[in-house]
């Protein structure tokens, strides 16, 4: 189990050695800006902190969960974040009808990486805790990747996740 | 596995039905304050978001991990938070020598609840990913609970966690 967690985490290490916590070279006296759960993906949205919390809210509110895997120093993640945060339709639908979670570390649940651990990728999980691997983006080699130009597709996929909810549950 | 997660989460539900996400009765137009990872336990400290992330940082920085389990609507948690945030020695030691994580949801790792899932409680984990169940507070019936008056004991326990690090690893 411990080795499992480590191996999952180490996948991201080579990609992310410069991200995350500032190094101690930062002058101690400098006032830090408190870290937010949104990490810039929508400061006005209410984000779950952990996968466990998100699953609980999804189940108790009967709302689908949208999980965004990203990295702070990945330009594709940054570009997608900007488009996502600026898209009013996506922000509103996320606020009204989804439980949302953004993560810079992988979880131990392999269902959340159906075709590998890459960033950025977006997965939907329904309140029965089933990962909706059938809701995919535009790219055959990275099924859950989105680019800034794909916001309409992402919105439509969010609507699909809601439709599944009504017709299947 | 899924049922396991749920049962873990449900332990907290009865305690926490009023906490977490504001209900939708909040006026939509009201500007929300972005949620922070610190949740008031030290806005100037750098907090891990998830247990997986915290374990990674603990291992890669060779620093012990301190995990605080708490609830927003628990008066004991709130009182401890105030004492913790205002204690300069604890804040400095946490900033310099610890990886820190505060959680309002339980993880699936049972090692983090050696004598049950209650709040507030504080556990130490060393970089070898061993939960230091031997570092306890003052109360025999809740070994990992601390009260605001226990800040000296908590500081001393943090120093113990660091000492273990040097002598045992």
From TrEMBL, chains A, B:
<dbReference type="GO" id="GO:0005576">
    <property type="term" value="C:extracellular region"/>
</dbReference>
<keyword id="KW-0256">Endoplasmic reticulum</keyword>
<comment type="similarity">
    <text>Belongs to the AGR family.</text>
</comment>
<dbReference type="InterPro" id="IPR051099">
    <property type="entry name" value="AGR/TXD"/>
</dbReference>
<feature type="signal peptide">
    <location>
        <begin position="1"/>
        <end position="20"/>
    </location>
</feature>
<protein>
    <submittedName>
        <fullName>Anterior gradient protein 2 homolog</fullName>
    </submittedName>
</protein>
<dbReference type="InterPro" id="IPR036249">
    <property type="entry name" value="Thioredoxin-like_sf"/>
</dbReference>
<keyword id="KW-0964">Secreted</keyword>
<dbReference type="Pfam" id="PF13899">
    <property type="entry name" value="Thioredoxin_7"/>
</dbReference>
<keyword id="KW-0732">Signal</keyword>
<dbReference type="GO" id="GO:0005783">
    <property type="term" value="C:endoplasmic reticulum"/>
</dbReference>
């Amino acid at each position: 189990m411990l080795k499992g967690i480590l191996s999952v985490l180490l996948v991201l290490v080579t990609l992310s050695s410069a991200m995350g916590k500032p190094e101690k070279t930062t002058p101690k006296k400098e006032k830090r800006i408190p870290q937010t759960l949104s990490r810039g993906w929508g400061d006005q949205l209410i984000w779950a902190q952990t996968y466990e919390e998100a699953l609980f809210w999804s189940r108790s509110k009967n709302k689908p969960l949208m999980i965004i895997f990203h990295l702070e120093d990945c330009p594709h993640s940054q570009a997608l974040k900007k488009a996502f945060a600026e898209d009013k339709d996506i922000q509103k639908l996320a606020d009204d009808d989804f439980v949302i979670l953004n993560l810079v570390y992988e979880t131990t649940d392999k269902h959340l990486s159906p075709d590998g651990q890459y960033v950025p990728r977006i997965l939907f999980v329904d309140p029965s805790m089933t990962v909706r691997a059938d809701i995919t983006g535009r790219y055959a080699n990275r099924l859950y990747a989105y680019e800034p130009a794909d916001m309409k597709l992402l919105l439509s996929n969010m609507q699909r996740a809601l439709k599944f909810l009504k017709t299947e549950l």
